[in-house]
Design brief:
Length: 170
């Protein structure tokens, strides 16, 4: 029987934690072990970082480090989990791929009210923050700077200066 290493590496570390009953807390796309709080799992990349021991890696490396076994024994346990995981129905597997689907989020600038001009933002960056005027002008022309609209504070009812928005680009 041939071993498909890509399939083995794709097995979710979070699934293994649930399979073994290892307690963890969730922090956005990261899991932190309760009994070893310096061990953090990145669910997007399916890797772990154990900061206090300065080790990291995939599920096989996690099993070796967490259960303090040899790589050969870790491979046996990893394979057992693989058989268990592949025997589950698709709805059970889907909960471990939910974070990957959420990464397809596209930011919508249409939700933000922006002003047509960037004068207040440019003046602030040049006069108060000391940036070079040419640099700020180039950022504004390339749409790396946007100016929000002035808004009224809900409690004091005072008008506040417009915010400077820095859109990100891929």
């Amino acid at each position: 029987m041939a071993i498909n290493r890509a399939e083995m590496k794709a097995l979710p570390i979070q699934g293994y934690l649930d399979y073994k009953g290892i307690d963890y807390t969730t922090e956005h796309n990261r899991l932190r072990l309760v009994d070893h709080d310096s061990c953090v799992i990145n669910t997007d990349k399916n890797v772990f970082f154990w900061n206090s021991k300065q080790i990291s890696g995939d599920l096989g490396d996690f099993i070796t480090a967490y259960e303090n076994v040899t790589p050969k024994e870790a491979w046996v346990r990893w394979s057992e989990f693989g058989r268990h995981y592949n025997g589950q129905d698709e709805t059970e597997k889907a909960k471990y791929q939910a974070s990957a689907r959420e990464n397809n989020y596209k930011f919508n600038w249409q939700r933000w009210r922006t002003a047509q001009t960037k004068n207040n933002s440019e003046n602030y960056l040049v006069n108060e923050r000391g940036f070079d005027a040419t640099f700020v002008q180039r950022l504004a022309n390339a749409d790396f700077i946007k100016q929000g609209k002035p808004r009224q504070d809900r409690q004091t009812k005072e008008w506040q200066k417009p915010a400077i928005l820095f859109p990100w680009h891929d």
